[in-house]
Amino acid sequence: MDDLSRFCCLNSDCPEYGKRGAGNLTVTSRYGPDKQRRMLRCRTCKARFSERKGTPLFGSHLDPETVGSILGHVAEGCGVRQAGRLCKVNRGTVGRLSRIAGRHARDLHDELVALSPPDPRGPVR
Ligand SMILES: [Zn+2]
Q: How close is the Cα of 28 to the center of ligand 1, in Å?
């Protein structure tokens, strides 16, 4: 079973637009290397979109680990050149990713601050 609770409809005309875990999304197909990427469909407005649309991964040929590593370096205060050197990517790539991620982060800020990333030490009490 696919966990789609972190996704939402990306059609701004749809009543379910931006609502995560509304139960309106289904997986219609898989694509890409090893069929790891999912095409999602909104039952409400019938829109289809890639699960990567709207994320820094969309349209990127880098694997998620590399993107995560690049953004991790930037988040820790590395400059664009330094992060590029450490992750062995062009600094233009670092700049592009951080711009997209920054926009994305701003858009989702209110939601993400209420959601803690998984922590192996367990929930904070
Ligand atoms: Zn929709």
A: 14
Between CA 19 and CA 96 the distance in angstroms is: 27
Task: Tell me the three state secondary structure of residue 37.
Answer: strand
Residue entry with tokens 């990713």: 97
CA 25 / ligand 1 centre spacing (Å): 8
Q: Please calculate the CA angle 117-66-25 and round it to the nearest 5 degrees.
A: 55
The tens digit of pLDDT for each residue in 90-118 reads 888 888 888 878 777 776 665 545 555 56
Six token digits for residue 94 = 């670092």
* 26 alpha carbon – ligand 1 mean position (Å): 11
The candidate with the shortest Cα–Cα distance to 107, out of 38, 10, 13, 26, is 10
